[in-house]
Amino acid sequence: MSIFEGALTQLKRAAKFIDLDQAFLDQLSSPERTIKVTFPLKKDSGKVEIIKGYRVQYNNILGPFKGGLRFHPAVDMDEVVALSFWMMVKNAIVNVPFGGGKGGIEVDPKNLSEKELEKLTREFTKKLAPNIGPFIDVPAPDVNTNAKIMDWIEDEYQRQWTMDNGQWTNIHKNQLKAVVTGKSVKNGGSAGREAATGLGGFFVLEKLVKKLNLKKPITCAIQGFGNVGANFAKILFKNGFKVVAVSDVKGGIFDNKKIGFNIDLLKECREEKGFLAGCYCIGSVCDIARKYENGIISNEDLLKLPVDILIPAALENVITNKNAKDIQAKIVFEMANGPTSYEADQILERRGILVVPDVLVNCGGVTVSYFEWYQNMHKESWSEDIVNKNLKEKMEKAFEDVWKIHEERNVSFRVAAYILALRRLSEKAKI
Ligand code: NAD
Questions:
Q1: More exposed terminus of the chain, fewer Cβ within 10 Å: N or C?
Q2: 336-361 pLDDT tens trace
Q3: Is 144 in the pocket of ligand 1 (CB under 6 A)?
């Protein structure tokens, strides 16, 4: 089953619980528009490489298409379609006026110089420019993309727009900035956007801990230490959770004694060394590592650790029918998009492992992206406190809405989340 087929199966499973028009379900089962672009990239060496990029506009029932851009060698159309579908579902759950979109470039940015990365981003933006815009489709960061890349997109889009429309327009420059979110704060980005996905997840987790009456110490293992994983780890650490294992693409480390890592030190070390596994023994972290009797752990083994909460925060499809029987965590908290395959989800459900789905827990990023878009459109600039307060409200409301359906219908969290999304989409489609 492909990633997208798995995602659709989740949708159809939830659709059985509500009275939904078959034609509408069919409409939600395929993307409105898929865009594939190919362009040459001249490398610093003078060599030319042909690059493939994608943007999928899944549907805009709730508002302009919205979703991140991923730069990764494994990006392909099936993955981007699935990710754009999940964006549609997420935006409905967290109730922001956006549809689903996603994009990516099949490239390993780690093999590019800064100059090549900028050229790649600008060429891709030129190709997408006719199909994106503040009222049309609004990209954002995802795996291997960040504020600097979003700033290049914004700048290139403004340049293209001015060439096509001239300078005399009365559309405010700020509004054009809303073509992309996740920009740097100095360039119209929102305060709080960078940590928003992690913080949003934490607001959901706090509610869950209360509902389930979980008592500290609560042990957590996190796969992925990028924007989402590292920010989430830091927030957990600051709030008294014990993060006992973390990993990145090169592997991970774990704390045998379950004391819990000092995430500030780990972040420092990773920045210095470039990867986490290297933090097993570096400078001050080395001393801590010895004290905690840490060990090196593979990404696969991290998933099987006996912790209270397992947090996949890297890529999709890491919990599959091959390893679902070995998961020992009590809760799987999906900060990544699509980390659990459909088959694995069924196995975990049968085994009584609570899966808190991606479409609910990782909505924080798109929520603050919406705040950024709103601030650009209205020439406003909110403080981080206001952003975080509004984020908390949105995430807690989404959690309560999903929890209510979960209890009333006696369905899994994932089915409940999809039921909520389907209700909101069908209500809006009727208008
Ligand atoms: P990122 O590029 O900042 O970080 C990705 C992390 O995953 C890195 O630590 C990398 O080393 C690690 N990684 C990559 N391949 C891996 C592998 N095969 N095994 C283990 N680790 C691996 O990306 P991110 O923005 O943190 O995104 C992580 C996940 O969260 C993705 O699924 C993304 O779609 C999702 N997400 C991101 C946002 C956001 O705002 N950035 C919002 C919602 C969901």
A1: C
A2: 999 999 999 999 999 999 999 999 99
A3: yes
